[in-house]
Design a protein that fits this description.
303 residues, Nuclear Transport Factor 2, Chain: A, 8-stranded mixed sheet
């Protein structure tokens, strides 16, 4: 049995070693990497001659894996657009990522990098924050023959559409969702957390101005917070300020109700009345339930 096991292991090792084939070397430092860095330095400065010097005459650019490609002369025209349209343009390594140079035995020399592109579009005021992955192939003369770029095009689409005035839905000053928010507030002021919870989707999330951006709590946690507020305060009231707006956003196909209130109550611990303004933003799902609520207020009223 032992001899059979040894034989099986030996066969596995031989097969595994035969399945591997080295096809080049990876470099963390290489002249080709330095060329790509100088390439983008020239791009930042709008130096067309310096930028073009790194490119082969046959160079093509390919975006997000598309089968279509852009020839060198057209790519250089894009440099003029960037120089004209943007200021404070920077291409930096998207740390902790760093570039590699790979010299393939079969395939030639390539560089790959991950960049963070920042800058300000002059006309629209939009600040770029684009994560970009680049692959560069080099010929034997050290010139770039192809540039493959991968990035999210959302910010560029926003820039493209920023020059036109366009509608993004409708605004309602009377709407069933506005009524829902009023009933929610009435349930809250009645110190009925169970009734208030009925207006929310079971998977609803909540955040407020005191929390870190992106931080949320779930419905059970929000109910506990309500109970804490009910236990710590008497005579809780919320007086409507102005009138709520229900906005239908066509771009995201959602309804959001914005409402403004004056929260008031008597603190049991301090024995005095507390009053502060609060704005609520309630996002609804297709079933008419609130799926996200953001509360904006200042905590200095509690200090």
């Amino acid at each position: 049995m032992k001899k059979i096991l040894v034989l099986v292991i030996s066969v596995f090792i031989v097969l595994f070693s035969q399945a591997q084939e080295k096809n080049g070397t990876v470099y963390v430092k290489h002249p080709a990497i330095e060329k790509t860095k100088m390439l983008w330095t020239a791009f930042e400065k709008g130096d067309k001659a310096a930028f073009e010097a790194f490119l082969a005459d046959s160079m093509v650019a390919i975006y997000n894996g598309s089968r279509d490609f852009q020839k060198k002369e057209d790519y250089l025209k894009g440099l003029v657009w960037w120089s004209t349209e943007f200021e404070n343009l920077k291409f930096t390594d998207d740390a902790p990522a760093f570039p590699d140079a790979i010299d393939y035995t079969k395939g030639g020399l390539w560089v790959q990098d991950w960049l963070l592109v920042t800058g300000t579009h002059k006309k629209s005021g939009i600040n770029l924050n684009v994560h970009m992955h680049n692959l560069y192939s080099f010929n034997k003369d050290g010139k770039i023959t192809s540039l493959h770029q991968y990035f999210d095009n959302t910010q560029f689409e926003e820039i493209s559409s920023s020059g036109a005035t366009q509608e993004n839905g409708k605004v309602y000053n009377n709407h069933p969702y506005i009524i829902t928010v009023r009933k929610l507030i009435n349930a809250y002021c009645a110190k009925n957390s169970a009734a208030a919870a009925e207006f929310y989707s079971p998977d609803a999330t909540f955040s407020d101005a005191t929390m870190k951006w992106g931080e949320t709590v779930n419905l059970d946690q929000e109910k506990k917070q309500m109970e804490k507020e009910f236990a710590g305060n008497d005579n809780i009231k919320m007086r409507q300020v102005g009138y709520p707006d229900c906005i239908y956003y066509a771009k995201d196909n959602i309804y959001v109700v914005y409402s403004w209130w004056i929260w008031s109550g008597t603190s049991k611990a301090k024995g005095k009345k507390i009053e502060f303004p609060i704005m609520l933003s309630d996002t609804f799902n297709k079933d008419g339930k609130i799926v996200y609520e953001f509360a904006s207020y200042s905590t200095n009223h509690f200090e």
